[in-house]
Amino acid sequence: MPAHPQTSTAAIVAAGRRLLEERGVDALTMRDVADAVGVRAPSLYKRVRNRSDLFRLVLEDVADELTGVLDAAAISGDPVADLRAMTAAYRGFAHANPVTYTLMMAPQAVPGATARSVRSSATFLNIVAQQAGPRHALPAARTIVAWAHGFITMELAGAFRLGGDVEQAWDFGLGRLLTAIRSPAD
Amino acid sequence: MPAHPQTSTAAIVAAGRRLLEERGVDALTMRDVADAVGVRAPSLYKRVRNRSDLFRLVLEDVADELTGVLDAAAISGDPVADLRAMTAAYRGFAHANPVTYTLMMAPQAVPGATARSVRSSATFLNIVAQQAGPRHALPAARTIVAWAHGFITMELAGAFRLGGDVEQAWDFGLGRLLTAIRSPAD
DNA sequence: TTGCAAGGCTAATATAGTTAGCCTTCACGG
DNA sequence: CCGTGAAGGCTAACTATATTAGCCTTGCAA
To answer: Whole-number Å distance, CA A27 to C1' C25?
Structure first.
């Protein structure tokens, strides 16, 4: 291996992720990323194919971290407690990474990124199955994830502008949902 | 008024909206919009401040239409039927306008656009109140909207990749939610 | 009839992403 | 020890796009 590398793909991804959160998606330039890791913009192309590729790598990184956070949250053994812990961890992660969370879940996002989160789907699905019964596990899981994702997205977008307590709305929704998915006639 | 205008703000907004849906957000250039309305790109600036402003106008247009669609759906007088009709209309609208719907609800979107939908919030809130009771109307409405928005967003993003019937998941979620928001102890 | 402003246009500028092509550094085989 | 080749920098150049500057024509209104 020749001349000392002055940076690495990992450093580029980390810088891109940080800048993305700090300045938003439109303000993220190859030049800024290059500055952050101490090289010139064209040198980035030795590591990433292009700007889209950098986005993909950043979002995969975010997805991996989210997977870890979710898996780490489900430890109590009690399904309701685990579901509460996982949804809270999910929301906490989104609040801590608002820009990249939103990008990761956005439509035109890279398929690769969202695919990563399939890994934690299995854990989640198992826990939901204990509440909703095996027949309704998949739709029940989708109901909870859709609600959580929608709530968080709207919250981050500032869409809850009719006043009221947003925390209370979260607790209300989660409480009602956890009851609602319980199998009444399985 | 001097020389015959060759276009109008409305035509520009309509062309922008159409191109946005057809080609996606990254492919929408001022040049393409100008071509679509029969002028040169710089002439657009006589009507819109800049590209962001064009986006704002397009998303406001979408929001206005969505408001109309939702209001038109709530006509039966029965709260459950109205809620089913409104959520179905909401989902149908999103499916018909996937790109602009997503943009409209996205975080960094223009505050103006989402603000328009506040108008239809009132109708929706009233109907939810008949189910959930006045005390829980706001959190209950937020629960349903969050679920619907999250479900649709994930659906459009292709995030439901574990197989299963997506229609069934929608029906399951909506059915359980409509029951769940009913006031058990108001 | 003359003035003036709306609303076109071309030309020019700035910013990004990206490519081309070169140069230096060292690990390694002879 | 020495030559070499590829990794990994860099500068310069190219392209696309938004946007601004400044001009020209048109036709209503005084």
So the answer is: 35
pLDDT of residue B109: 57
| Superfamily the domain B1-48 falls into | Homeodomain-like (1.10.10.60)
Shortest Cα distance from B45 to chain A (angstroms)?
21
- In order of B82, B114, B179, the CA distances from B85 in angstroms are 5, 21, 16
Superfamily of domain B60-180: Tetracycline Repressor, domain 2 (1.10.357.10)
Q: Which two tokens stand for residue A54?
A: 């950098």
* Domain range summary for chain A, segments of one domain joined by +: 1-48, 62-180
The DSSP code sequence of B21-33 is: HHH-STT--HHHH
Whether residue A111 is predicted with pLDDT greater than 90 in this model: the reply is: no
Architecture of A62-180 per CATH?
Orthogonal Bundle (1.10)
The pLDDT tens digits of the residues spanning A56-108 come to 999 999 999 999 999 999 999 999 999 999 999 999 999 999 999 999 988 66
Residue predicted with more confidence, A98 or B183:
A98
Q: Are B25 and B103 in contact (CB under 8 A)?
A: yes
pLDDT for the residue B114: 54
Element (H, E) at A128: helix A118-132
**Which residues, numbered 84 to 103 in chain B, qualify as contacts with chain A under a Cβ-Cβ cut-off of 8 Å?**
98-99, 102
Contact A157 B106 (CB under 8 A): yes
Residue range B54-63: mean pLDDT, rounded: 94
